[in-house]
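Recall from the previous chapter that SMILES is a line notation for molecules. Here it describes flavin mononucleotide.
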Amino acid sequence: MFFLTPVLAAVVCILIVWIFTNADRSMERRKEEPRARAEARPWVDEDLQDSTDLDQVEEDADESQESEENVEHIAFSHIRYPEKEMVKRSQEFYELLNKRRSLRFISNEQVPMEVIDNVIKTAGTAPSGAHTEPWTFVVVKDPDMKHKIRGVVEEEEEINYLKRMGHRWVTDLKKLRTNWIKEYLDTAPVLILIFKQVYGFAANGKRKVHHYNEISVSIACGILLAALQNAGLVTVTTTPLNCGPRLRLLLGRPANEKLLMLLPVGYPSKEATVPDLKRKRLDQIMVTV
Ligand SMILES: Cc1cc2nc3c(=O)[nH]c(=O)nc-3n(C[C@H](O)[C@H](O)[C@H](O)COP(=O)(O)O)c2cc1C
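With both inputs in hand, we obtain:
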């Protein structure tokens, strides 16, 4: 009984040392895991922030934004159409935009770059929170870069479809017959990647808040879609899930920019089809009070 006590004490000591050593190792492993994950995918801290993280930026920017308050106000020039003309113009514009469809089959025929310049200038006329114009339109024509973009999008989209989206989402997409293969990223002569600038920089280098940046850039994207339709080009609105950070780094864009939308632009391919979707009637979307 008495000589059991030192043996027991030794066993207890060994056990304690073993428990501490293992706890240390598992702490080390836990520290390593995020690092390994970060290396596997180039997530950058700022890419994971949303607008709720920007309070600090707002504080930093206050001073520098005050200096930009003094803008001269000038007379507004307006063209007023007769009512008949207004009705005609609004009807024709509706008919033009009602023909817009999301095209997932785009030919490799080149498009005039002057048209691309014009549609982007048009998108840049969008209103923006406090006139911050928080958008960057990256136009990709280079076939190698388009192919690299396709590689990133298909890799992430395959994971999206198989793992991230869930049964309901995948079922909702069935009618569109979409999957993670995005041939149009190679065939379309132009890809436009629209980045929202979550903050900008004042003349003194300080961060400048971009109020409502996502809404502002979304409006610009809507205008861009209308301008493309007006010019006779086609596209499909895409928001490649989880591709933003990788595409941002691939295109060498700074950390204050986050990918909002990717538009492949061109002419429809000869064999292009679209799902026969119906749009809601006016009485289903408008309420008059
Ligand atoms: C915010 C947003 C994200 C979209 N993302 C995708 C997408 O990732 N892939 C795709 O093929 N279509 C995408 N679409 C296109 C829609 O599927 C399409 O607009 C809808 O089915 C209606 O068809 P229509 O554009 O021909 O009227 C997206 C549309 C919007 C507005």
